[in-house]
Specification:
The complex is a heterodimer of chains A (about 290) and B (about 290). Chain A has about 290 residues and is of the alpha/beta class. Chain A has a domain of about 200 residues: 3-Layer(aba) Sandwich (Rossmann fold). Chain A is about 40% helix and about 20% strand. In chain A, the strands form 2 sheets. A 6-stranded mixed β-sheet of chain A has the order 6-7-8-3-9-10, with helices on both faces. In chain A, strands 2-1-4-5 form a 4-stranded antiparallel β-sheet, with helices on one face. In chain A, strand 7, helix 7 and strand 8 form a beta-alpha-beta unit. Chain B is mainly alpha-helical and about 290 residues long. Chain B has 2 domains: about 30 residues, no CATH class; about 260 residues, no CATH class. Chain B is about 70% helix and about 0% strand. The longest helix of chain B is centred in the middle third of the chain and has 29 residues. The chains are: A alpha/beta (about 290), B mainly alpha (about 290). At the A-B interface, helix 1, helix 3, helix 4, helix 5 and helix 7 of A face helix 1, helix 4 and helix 5 of B.
């Protein structure tokens, strides 16, 4: 990962001004990443328009998270490029980081701090000026319905509350692109729909682009404008959930579409997740007490 | 402007005159890129991570108390006994307990710092590290922030040891400047040892292995330094090791500042600063290994 200096304000203005009419929120072209001999992401081409809610779907091990890690500047693409609002993640990581809000797969708030402190930490790390910090932090917490418990330590929070807190952390920077990796995995159904209500509300009130990965077909069907089906490192189909279903004929569900393009069901493809995922999930559970 | 999250007003627009919704409008303008601005941002990151550490100490003080037990034992039992038997020659014939106190201070800071890497592994396991690495914080700034957060925790702990020593009748300096200087030395030493710990974390990659390595090197670092006895009574080979051990320089500086024994303050500070810079560089280079 290269660590180029942070760009000055002039750069942002240029990027924004020059690219305004045509630029997409996220563009991947020929994006490739290998772990040893295993090609995790294999020449992926993808274009996500501004304001879209885009779902990246696929079984465990399909390459969704690796794609996200390249987009969020955590991994440097081995081939091809990924850019956010026209800015290459490999070349200008610091600028890209300022434009995205990222919620990783695991519940990752700091349990030994309060909710408010968790959000304030990110406001500081994103250089939100001191004069605006309080409003920003309180606003993000309020948007996620966490004003009341914000003074409590996060170890007392439920899973759904922690997820909403992480969304507040990601929002405090007012990102252009919100990246959610499995936003509702491990949550009970009520917490899941509650998290989605908050995301939907946010979408209604802003033109933020949302990119999320999920393997809950019902969620993708309900909340995504467009989806891409990923399998074994490449994109197998892209389109609106309605279009993809219609292509298979009357009465087809997104599960059918999924099966058609990935050649199996979700349950058949879980080996790739493996013991590491399970252990990580357990560690998270233990940490959050 | 329509693009803000509810209640989250955008700070600056890249192009405020443009009609229609513009996601750019919500982009916070990054600060300028002059050397001064870069230095200010680095300072801001270090202060931020120190702020987090202070909040954590405030929320849970258990560690502060449990970690006070060991230095208390060293001072109360080991210190009192060796003061009585006059076994160890001290510069200027000062009481051994006074000679020992800065050494124990450095030891308790060392114990905090050398296991600080566990926190970074814990943050890796919890996904916190990944999130921190997606903020506009260069790796070296993140490591420096963590290092000085460890330094801050050590200073808080060291205060407990200073109070303890004073209660045992050790004649410590009451010069505020010297006390502040001592706090800086404690912070700097801990910054180095926490970088050492984070470097080992980047190599070992697991909490258990780091615990093992930490246990294995703590006591050798302690005994091969001038914390317990002056260098001149060590066997020749140990003197050589002691000369390479940053803890010796930390102890030397602390003794000079707190007890007033002859010290090489300039050299001590240079050694600690160089060691810390090297430590930050090494652990920042290993950080991607951890976050993988």
């Amino acid at each position: 990962m290269s660590e180029l200096p942070d760009p000055g304000p002039a750069t942002i203005a240029t990027v924004a001004g020059a690219a305004r009419p045509a630029v997409s929120a996220v563009v991947c072209s020929g994006l490739t990443y290998r772990f040893g001999t295993h090609t995790a992401v294999d020449h992926v081409d993808l274009r996500i328009e501004r304001g879209e809610t885009f779902g990246l779907l696929g079984p465990n091990g399909a390459g969704k998270t690796t794609t996200i890690r390249m987009l969020t500047t955590l991994l440097r693409p081995m081939e091809g490029t990924v850019s956010v609002l026209g800015v290459s993640a490999a070349e200008r990581p610091m600028l890209v980081r300022r434009m995205i809000g990222y919620v990783p797969q695991l519940l990752s708030a700091d349990a030994t701090l309060t909710g408010h402190e968790n959000v304030e930490l990110f406001a500081r790390l994103f250089d939100v000026p001191r004069s605006l910090r309080r409003d920003r932090v309180d606003g993000a917490l309020a948007a996620m319905g966490l004003t009341e418990p914000s003074g409590r330590l996060v170890k007392t929070y439920s899973g759904g509350m922690i997820r909403r807190l992480e969304l507040a952390q990601a929002l405090v920077n007012s990102p252009s692109v919100l990246v959610l990796d499995e936003p509702t995995v491990g949550l009970d159904p009520i917490a899941r729909s509650n998290v989605w209500e908050h995301i939907a509300q946010l979408r209604a009130q802003s033109d933020m682009t949302v990119l999320m990965t999920t393997h809950y077909m019902d969620e993708a069907d309900t909340y995504c404008d467009r989806i891409a089906l990923m399998h074994a490192g490449s994109i197998r189909a892209t389109g609106s959930p309605g279009l993809l279903k219609a292509m298979l004929g009357d009465g087809a569900t997104l599960d059918d579409v999924f099966r058609r393009y990935t050649g199996g069901t979700l349950d058949d493809n879980t080996e790739a997740g493996g013991i590491r995922d399970v252990r990580r999930a357990r560690r998270t559970a233990r940490r959050l007490g | 402007m329509t693009s803000a999250a509810p209640g989250v007003p955008p700070v600056a627009s890249a192009d405020p005159a443009a009609p229609g919704p513009a996601p750019f409008a919500t982009v916070l303008l990054p600060p300028a890129d002059t050397p001064l601005a870069v230095a200010r941002r680095l300072t801001s990151r270090i202060l931020t991570l120190c702020w987090v550490e202070l909040r954590k100490i405030r929320h849970d003080r258990t560690e502060l108390y449990t970690r006070a037990i060991q230095p208390a034992l060293w001072l109360l039992i080991y210190g009192e006994v060796f003061t009585k038997i006059h076994a160890i020659p001290t510069p200027g014939g000062i009481p051994y307990l006074a000679y020992l106190a800065p050494g124990i201070l450095a030891q308790s800071a060392l114990f905090i710092a050398i296991f600080y890497g566990i926190q970074i592994i814990w943050e890796r396991d919890a996904g916190v590290l990944t999130k921190l690495m997606v903020t506009p914080t260069p790796r070296a700034a993140l490591i420096s922030g963590k290092a000085f957060a460890a330094g801050l925790r050590s200073v808080v702990q060291a205060t407990v040891v200073v109070i303890l020593s004073a209660l045992l009748g050790v004649a410590l300096t009451d010069n505020p400047l010297k006390l502040i200087g001592a706090a800086c030395i404690v912070a700097l030493g801990s910054a180095f040892f926490s970088c050492l710990s984070m470097t080992i974390a980047g190599l070992a990659l697991s909490r258990d292995r780091l615990m093992g390595i930490g246990q294995a090197i703590t006591m050798p670092l302690f005994f091969s330094s001038s914390a317990l006895y002056p260098e001149r009574i060590m066997p020749g080979w140990l003197q050589v090791i002691s000369k390479c051990n940053p803890l010796s320089y930390q102890v030397d500086a602390l003794r000079g500042l707190l007890i007033g024994t002859p010290a090489h303050l300039g050299l001590d500070v240079i050694v600690l600063v160089v060691a810390t810079v090297a430590g930050v560089t090494a652990s920042a280079a290993l950080l991607p290994r951890l976050a993988r």
